[in-house]
Amino acid sequence: MKRLLVLLFLLVLCISPASGFVLAEFCPDGYAAGDGDEYLILEGSGSLSGWTVFDGEGSLTFPAGAVSSGRVVVARSAEAFFAIHGTLPDYEILESSAVKNVLQTGRFQMANTGDDLSLLHLGEVIQTVSWPGELSSSNGRVHVYTDGVWDDRIYKIGQSRFSPETFTADSVTLFVSPDSSYEAVSGVIREASETLLISMYEFTHADIAREIADAAKRGVDVTLLLEGGPVGGISDEEKGVMDYLAGRGVSILTIESEGSIPARYRYLHAKYLVADGYSTVILSENFKPSGIPLPGTRGNRGWGAVIRDEETAEYFAEVFAADLGGIDMYPYVPGDEPLPAPWSDEKIVPHFAGMTLYDVSITPVISPDTSSLVFDLIRSAHRTVDLQQAYISPYQDGENIWMAAVLGAADRGASIRVMLDGMYYNTADDADNDELAAALNRYGGDVSARLLLPGAHLTKLHNKGMIVDGEHVLISSINWNFNSPNNNREAGVIIHSREAAGYYTAVFSADWNGEYEKDPVSAGLGFDLRLLLAGGIVILLIGIVIRRRR
């Protein structure tokens, strides 16, 4: 009987499909001349015999005996692919002898703006995809098939693909700018004994530069990654910081576009550091005197956290390593700009000291990889959403989906408070923060918005934070526009803790009840618009009564 069962089992194996493949990824519009780096990837294992890729004009099949143990990369030119990606494909269409060739029938080349692909097995169509009908193609854009769906995010050549993870941190120290940020950041730098990994959009803070130089002097291996093309270019002050640190043994690299090859991310806008593989600092603020003010001085409103946990540190160290590994990384060439003079604003009495919590659940958020976690967090809101943003912009092709999700929470009965920056550059245009605040105040339900104005304690609102249902806190560098979550490299964390939510809610409420503008549209007109509207309604009612009497 046992022999019979074994024979039946072997028979089933013989008649079952030996392998299965799926078209998992392709890039029709690469960066190399003539799109020599265009490629496609099949995922699956087993024999490649009988599998064909067809683009309507030509087809690709594999040589006899070809097998796969997971992924098969087919590029138009192996040399062009290597020049862009730094690795060789498994097969190529053109002949360069660098790798094996696929067998081509007809002319197979994916068109940039519109084409289609079909994957066939023994002549049977297994999978098809077309663009622009199903996908939005653009230069350098990679299309990825995951869980039966194409393009759940915008991928570009060379971008990382981190997945969501949640860790339990040993401790988390909460802090805010301007009250307690310098102590928190400098404290981690001073404690470092082995390594410092720093990723920053802008760095002009002379005092923090000296803290880092001191760390390098005592033997800490410091690597600094900066955006090479910030808005307005790298300032002389930042060059002075870079020159100073480079002269003291700090390794400095910039991410930037070069020639026909654009940077992987529109901006490296992240603000974080990892010390000794254990302490991770996440910030909404740049390393600038206004972002991380010296103790007891005025500055931006921003949020931050020091997370002490090996797994969280490892996660962000892997993000850092992935960013360093791109072809858009360039070693900084030092110049002779002087270190900027130390600068601080007016003196203040700090309101919020740092607070340390233990055994805290942490979920990293990385743009563009996992920025959808923010959208999911908003959609989970049922009771409250407190939102502080420097600005919120509509998408070019429509509404801001994150802001729409916040109003969706309001429609479910949640109480919404939105605080935006009131600086002139965020209120000067016809459709920016003041107009949005006014529109939110007209929305109905329990929705209210205010502009934070420069005052005795705060210079501006630069935060990108959110508190949901009094249980979850977002600390991040992610602005609420289209590019920040979709095209920038950003970094943040969601802290799952009522105590953390309580801390930041206290800060939010102090700002909400402090120096703000309740009715920004009225202020711009020079009188209270609500009184005018009320007067108009009264006049209208009087007119109706008189007309009826006639």
Automatic annotation (TrEMBL):
<feature type="domain" description="PLD phosphodiesterase">
    <location>
        <begin position="457"/>
        <end position="484"/>
    </location>
</feature>
<dbReference type="Pfam" id="PF13091">
    <property type="entry name" value="PLDc_2"/>
</dbReference>
<dbReference type="InterPro" id="IPR001736">
    <property type="entry name" value="PLipase_D/transphosphatidylase"/>
</dbReference>
<keyword id="KW-0442">Lipid degradation</keyword>
<feature type="transmembrane region" description="Helical">
    <location>
        <begin position="529"/>
        <end position="546"/>
    </location>
</feature>
<keyword id="KW-1133">Transmembrane helix</keyword>
<keyword id="KW-0443">Lipid metabolism</keyword>
<protein>
    <recommendedName>
        <fullName>PLD phosphodiesterase domain-containing protein</fullName>
    </recommendedName>
</protein>
<dbReference type="InterPro" id="IPR051406">
    <property type="entry name" value="PLD_domain"/>
</dbReference>
<dbReference type="GO" id="GO:0016042">
    <property type="term" value="P:lipid catabolic process"/>
</dbReference>
<keyword id="KW-0472">Membrane</keyword>
<keyword id="KW-0378">Hydrolase</keyword>
<dbReference type="GO" id="GO:0016891">
    <property type="term" value="F:RNA endonuclease activity producing 5'-phosphomonoesters, hydrolytic mechanism"/>
</dbReference>
<keyword id="KW-0812">Transmembrane</keyword>
<dbReference type="InterPro" id="IPR025202">
    <property type="entry name" value="PLD-like_dom"/>
</dbReference>
